[in-house]
């Protein structure tokens, strides 16, 4: 098992906000790729009707996760919440208590690793 931390967000794209969502997503993906080497996976997917978004994020460890969360809050949080309504988050891997606490407002479902591997 690794020290990786990862999650899946299930989000509702607010009515009439798809174009704003798409522009924000592109900005966030570019910033995360350019500035966060500890972000290993950062994948956004949208339902056919463009009303649901899933974001799969995986980080090298809890420290890299907290870097991302700090950048998100400082640069994107307000705009993100203006176009997306969080429905759920499932947290996987080996997050520190700090990570779990930082996601606390989202009431994450925390899944404990019991077997498998990551390459």
Automatic annotation (TrEMBL):
MF terms in GO: monooxygenase activity
Q: Where is the ABM domain?
A: 8-70
**SUPFAM superfamilies noted in UniProt:** Dimeric alpha+beta barrel
Keywords attached to this Swiss-Prot or TrEMBL record, sorted alphabetically, are: Monooxygenase, Oxidoreductase
> From what superkingdom does this record's organism come?
Bacteria
Q: Name one Pfam family in it.
A: ABM
Q: What's the protein here called?
A: Antibiotic biosynthesis monooxygenase
Please tell me the species this chain comes from.
Sneathiella sedimenti
The record's listing under InterPro entries reads: ABM_dom, Dimeric_a/b-barrel
